[in-house]
Amino acid sequence: MSHLTDEARAASRAAQPTIDMGANSLEAIVAANPGRRSVLKNGLLGLSILPMLGTLAACGDDDDDSSTPTPTPTPTPTPAPSYSISFAPVAANMNDTVTVPNGYTVDVLLKAGDSVEAGTPYSGGFPTAAVAEKWAGGNHDGMEYYELSGTDANGGGLLAINFELPDFNILFANGQPDPVTATAEQRAVSLSAVGVGVVEIAKGADGKWGVKAGSKYNKRYTGNSIYRASGRAAGLLSTSIKGTLNNCSSGRTPWGTYLTCEESTENYLDPSQPEENYGWVVEIDPYQELDAATKRTELGRFDHENTAYMADSNSRVAFYMGHDGTPGCIYKFVCDRAFSSSNRAQNRDMLDHGTLYVARFNADGTGEWRALVQGQNGLVVGATDPGNVSQSVTPPAPVKVDFNNQADVLINTISAARVAGGTVMDRPEWITVAPDNSAVFVTLTNNSSRRVTDAANPRTVNRHGHIIKFKEEGNSPLAMKFSWEIFLLAGDPKLAGFGDKLEGNINGDTFSSPDGIRIDPKGRLWVQTDHSVPGSSGDSARTIEQIFGQNAMFYIDQATKKSSRFLVGPKGCEITGLAYTPDLKTFFVNIQHPTGDWPVSGQQPRSSTIVVRRTDSQPVGN
């Protein structure tokens, strides 16, 4: 979550197809053995021509049967690409550029205000709502890459991108208008710059990527668009819902749809809208084949950060989610039935049928999933919500809550999770699942207001956050028990003595406020940071940037826990969002809310999606 989001919604808060088949997917197969792609592409011709060449070489005019034919040379096999991490870490800095290791290149792919649908892009003036509705929105966040049938996925595909908050500096002369007194046109302009964009992208002959203008797949889903709702809470929402907004991070399904996560339970850009319409996971089909964009209420209503799924060999699947709150809980939704890997249409209501659970982390390193089902775990009429017990040494007064039916549980999931005994964590943001289901990682970004600790959240005034790792029993998405450990505590040795364990225990390049996290198909762990700019480090004499530099992206070795700084962003930004091509030679990363002279010198700073590649065409990480 951008710190700007907190500022934007502060007033309202005070007032109030290619189907992803896991290990069998093209992405996983090619990542494991990139040579498979050339064999499949060449087909039988590529396999049969060598024996034919051998036969021709043995034929000739010479009657001397004793002559020995020249042997056909054995082709030198193309060496498999290396996915080992060998880049030289970059130094922390405060430069107004994107810093990457030697041997890498950075290109800007899509800026706030660039055209998604056909129209006039940003060129320095302020737009009407009709114009801005076709632009890439602002504060680019989570994203996913999708393959296209008939296209080499390493050279082209679809990119679905979240837009968390408007880049107000390119929309209005005087910044964000007051949402309460704003005109209808001003609200429409603001709402045009949130939501989701889907663009078809392709790599050119020069190796650089670009958006394919005019593609039938290019589409905006904005805060002005109309959405439907499904699930048992749908009847408590508007029949047609205006807008999705605060689209923070995201996820995907095994059947190739996009899950955008609303990180706000009210429409702070248009307070006239019912608050129950927001705070959901929205399912979008980037191929535009299945349902229209739908808010799936069975996954609960809270400040959603992202989703990550775990699937087993029987096509049973669970989706993990974090509530980006101080504090917030960790959830999973288990679908009632197996998904179809051969018929996408059979999966269109998968997220309408299942059970939502909240995680409880026990002090002995065990954990359990508690069902958020009306009538179970205290979710009844007259239930007692203990409140945010971690934020004050004096417990808050409990509040009575009525859960009359499952719709009440889904509308008021935050309260239901506490009633059921879920552990309140320090801002659970991104979640990622290991390719072999052996681990789930969660970033707990920070919680400087925590005053009461527990085993899973061991620091008061947790300015720098931590990462927790848990393992489902039997590596199964259907498990009801798990084991857990604190993977690392963020911080820096220079902060020893300035607060409750502010030094952390990072091995290698230090960082604060882990946010984005993703394990790629080769099992490599990447972490992105979101410390406030400017922000407090805990040492009153030094800012957070003076300790850690600007927000960055790191590789972390899961065995040694050593962190290596891979990328540093420009001034004022957050690093967020990570997607990649199947061969892992192209990484897409989002730069959110820069404040300096980036990405175009002399123009307004704009949130942007960048492309990171090696200059020698090897996988990222070498």
From TrEMBL:
InterPro entries reported for this sequence: PhoX
Q: State the Pfam families in the record.
A: PhoX (PF05787)
Instruction: Outline the segment boundaries, as ranges, of region: Disordered.
Output: 60-83, 596-622
Q: Where is the composition biased (Pro residues)?
A: 70-80
Question: Which SUPFAM superfamilies would you find in this protein's record?
Answer: Calcium-dependent phosphotriesterase
Q: Which domain of life is it from?
A: Bacteria
Please list the coiled coil stretches.
none
- Report biased composition (Polar residues) as residue ranges: 601-610
According to UniProt, the name of this protein is DUF839 domain-containing protein
Q: Which organism is it from?
A: Sphingobium psychrophilum
